[in-house]
Input
Amino acid sequence: MSVVIKVEGVSKLYKLGEISTGTFRHDLNRWIKRVINKEDAYTKIGLLDDRNLNAEYVWALRKIDLEINKGDILGVIGSNGSGKSTLLKLLSKITKPTEGRIFLNGKISSLLEVGTGFHPEMTGRENVFMNGSILGMKKKEIAEQLDSIIDFSGVEQFIDTPIKRYSSGMKVRLGFAVAAHLNQDILIVDEVLAVGDAEFQKKCLGSMQNVSKQGRTVLFVSHNMAAIKQLCTRTLVLNKGSLVADTTTEDGILRYLESARSNDFNGINLLNEKFEKDVLVSFEQISIKQQGNLVSDISNDEDFNIEILYTICQRIIGFRLILLVYDNYENLITRSYFDELNDMGSTVNEGRYHTIFNIPANLLIDGIYKLKIISYIHNIRLCKPYEGITLSLNVIETGLLKRKVLPQSDRGLVTLPIQISTNTRM
Output
């Protein structure tokens, strides 16, 4: 199989805070400040990077070696700041590597930003022709594909409306439609599914699969693990600028989730006094316990508890505390409400509380799960922190339900025991 992308020892270095002011006077003022050891008011951006906190420079990527074959659908995953978008920009020739070399055997089309290359004053139709020309298509080729592009994008009703009146979702639909209809050898897509609706996401995945069947190559960045699993057979895992895994998608997702696990909640003070004066609930400790012991790995043939210690800072009418359980592909497995039977929620007074969520045995199959705890006032507002508190859980199959012989695709999401009886009929 022929190699279409080869990356050899590629690194990318950025200098923190060094941004042009845009005027000669301010640039001169900056230089004078630097000479007399005064603070530069134009470039302090307050950026810290845990790859090298005290450095003036930061390596966005470091010594990446990679080969991508024709027809590959390659997933790229990692936490925010891991270098995913930087890698795609290097491959798209938007920027150059500081070190190393990149060899490309074929034409590239990329969709890295919503509405990239669109002019806000031009209509959708005019932008299709302009964007297609920028990406290397001839006017005749664009005209031949125009109906398909418009139909795929789903914005036919607004195609002669200026782009500035489009929503971000409409822009990305049109942008992806143009990129997907190019006869390019390599398609690079960065988080396009984060904007589109369910119907558009299904179209995108189908389109990228068709591109691969035609012998073209797809690089796909997403935080949607279910989409990565469905589309990609090979996955890169990046962490703090380094390539930590180049493996199968199943293994890559597990490695990424393992590296992202954060069970440091046990025994750690979580008081959220930093959330200003309107704090209603102050979480102190969250623990995972099985047989009364603090654990991060649990056996699925025994029940276990999620225990939350928190303080109600003032009387709340309609208080609710919810536990959400997601699998490693972001599928919601189950949820549980505190005082769930009361539709209006509970009235709680100031004080210290201890809530226990009990997860029954033989429910979760083995794997890594994300647990999210959210507190809110029923039908009124979320309590701070608004995004909730998240921790990870590793479930190990043990006991009678241990089924190593079943492939992953046949195991389902949960292991609910089902009573079966058979009678002989004459």
User: Anything to note?
Assistant: The chain has a mean pLDDT of 77. Residues 281-410 form a domain with the Coagulation Factor XIII; Chain A, domain 1 fold (CATH 2.70.50.60). The CA atoms of residues 153 and 174 lie 5 Å apart. Helices lie at 24-35, 84-91, 124-134, 139-153, 168-180, 198-213, 225-231, 249-259.
